[in-house]
Amino acid sequence: MAPGAEPALSRLTVGEDPVNEQAGAAVRRRIDALWRIEGARIVAALARATRDVGFAEDLAQEALAEALTQWPVSGTPDNAAAWLTAVAKRKAIDAWRRSERLEERYRAIARDLEDDDGVAWVPLEDDVLRLVFTACHPVLSREAQMALTLRVVGGLTTEEIARLFLVPVATVQQRIVRAKKTLAAARVPFEVPEPNEWGARLGAVLGVVYLMFTEGYAATSGDAWIRPGLAHEALRIGRILAGLVPREPEAHGLVALMEFQASRFPARTTPDGSPVLLADQDRTRWDRAQIGRGRAALRRCDALGRGRGNYALQAAIAECHSMAPSVDDTDWQRIVLLYEALGRIAPSPVVELNRAVAVSMATGPAAALAIVDALASGGALRGTHLLPSVRGELLVRLGRSEEARSEFIAAAGLARNQRTRELLEERAGGILPAPDS
Fold first, then answer.
1. Best label site of 53, 97, 212, 298, fewest CB within 10 Å?
2. DSSP H helical ranges for 263-385
3. Which residues contact 172 (CB under 8 A, 6 or more apart)?
4. With contact defined as beta carbons under 8 Å apart, do 320 and 331 qualify?
């Protein structure tokens, strides 16, 4: 498989008869779920063995393709992650034998493979952290670091990454391919760097962990509104980072933010996976222990006495929500001030859109609509559902029902996540006509 290519699962077939087609569809679903849960650890284990992150990811994709061919016939192995890892390692050995290079490498891996069949696969927990730091090496641009890490650690497709960065898919693909080649050419070691080298990578690592969590908290595509496994993996990495750099306030700020947001997971969906918006969530189901951990992390950030940065300000906003008994009892004025501060140190259209939502609650929908319209006139967030969905809510509150319905329909057409699209369509269909219409 070419470096940077997507898993070609949808293009592979397992036979022409309906039984095989059904088995193949079931295997595709099983592989997709497995990859979202174990993909980062599989790639990390392969990167540790091969010392080449790009090669490791390519091997993992080849193993997935082989699984799609074999599993419909032979059944899914009891330890599917171990099976994929063993197949990928054997493919590495074959590649090295064909190229007649680094014989000592494949001999060492061959010894490791002796017990792969029939034994439990227990990856080293810090392999994923090594993978993050390797992908965030300073030989790569910041954009390439984030794209590659989200691909190989977060398991996101290039389409999902493109939507996160609001750039064309082709741009993301080029960044990933170039990043893999650059790491290989620079012979970047697969390791966590020495502490004196952290400064050049920490910002990128924190940024990637943040984006991983964001995708887990609100999936950009697929049929699940949230991806708790991805979010919890980001939180796990964040906690490790905060322990490794205890005097970096933003590491604690990021952990605080993720703790606060993750505390809402039990209330964010119904039993069938349908979204539950903030205003409708049962706050008694929020994880109070996790909220306590978030507040403790934010206190550790503040105790360092260096002010609140991007993540800590977002954590402070999340804390306001976490401590409020209801939407109406939330300190919206304080949230507006926090968003204004955030907009000054980390300006972005998303921050400004969130500020508009807070203004609508603190001051009223008219003032918020002016902010949203300014964003729209500048072309911000074009191609995403975010702006029309917020604009639709503001128009509902202003009694402009038909305009609101049009905004929700437009937003639904732009949404790539099935649950989000269904929510927006339901919102459009549920708007009552204005009294004078």
1. 97
2. 265-268, 288-303, 310-323, 332-345, 349-362, 365-377
3. 147, 158, 161, 162, 165
4. yes
